[in-house]
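Propose amino acids for all 216 sites.
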């Protein structure tokens, strides 16, 4: 009894990379855009709080993420720009931009985690409130927003890793224009011989005026 060997369908094999490219592209765009938005939004929220003691008593102090550190917001913008720039370059340039995207995510995570324990912004407020440059904040605590910013950095990092892994399958910007910026020349229309009726009918089909004579 003979065995029948199944022959793989070449169309299904060629379609698999295309499906992977589309899925990874959609996921990278979602992760990159969402991560940048989350990181930017988080830096506008209250990250830390404490109490300053002055002669008249004590009063609460709070600091937003942008007061603590501007690195997460800056790197989120860099990551968003890199996500867009991925489609403007190819080959080695695409890998380089994808690496910048991934590193932006790593930097956002690191800066957000370090900012969770940073007391300098509140200490500066306490020194201004008391008039004593050596005064520091007491009862220091932080909120969950630094970790939300770090989560946004993780999403940006994931987008960069997807770009590094599947970026070669993603589309690039149209190559309609050459590197010099000039559009490619249009193909010249075929000459019309007025003595040949078939040429006249073809010119009419193309929307041309067959009675117009080309200059010598």
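Proposal:
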């Amino acid at each position: 009894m003979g065995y029948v060997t199944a022959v793989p369908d070449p169309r299904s094999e060629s379609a698999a990379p295309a499906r992977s490219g589309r899925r990874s592209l959609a996921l990278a765009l979602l992760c990159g855009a969402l991560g940048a938005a989350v990181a930017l939004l988080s830096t506008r929220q209250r990250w830390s709080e404490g109490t300053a003691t002055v002669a008249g008593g004590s009063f609460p102090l709070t600091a937003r993420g942008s007061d603590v550190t501007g690195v997460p917001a800056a790197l989120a913008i860099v990551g968003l720009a890199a996500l867009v720039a991925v489609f403007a370059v190819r080959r080695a340039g695409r890998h380089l931009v994808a690496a910048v995207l991934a590193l932006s995510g790593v930097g956002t995570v690191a800066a957000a985690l370090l900012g969770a324990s940073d007391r300098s912004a509140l200490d500066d407020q306490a020194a201004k409130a008391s008039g004593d440059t050596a005064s520091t904040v007491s009862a220091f605590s932080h909120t969950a927003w630094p970790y939300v910013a770090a989560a946004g950095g993780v999403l940006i990092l994931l987008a960069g890793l997807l770009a590094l892994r599947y970026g070669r399958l993603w589309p690039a910007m149209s190559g309609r224009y050459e590197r010099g910026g000039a559009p490619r020349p249009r193909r010249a229309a075929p000459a019309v011989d007025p003595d040949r009726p078939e040429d006249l009918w073809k010119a009419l089909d193309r929307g041309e005026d067959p009675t117009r004579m080309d200059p010598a």
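The chain has one domain: 20-173. The CA atoms of residues 189 and 206 lie 9 Å apart.
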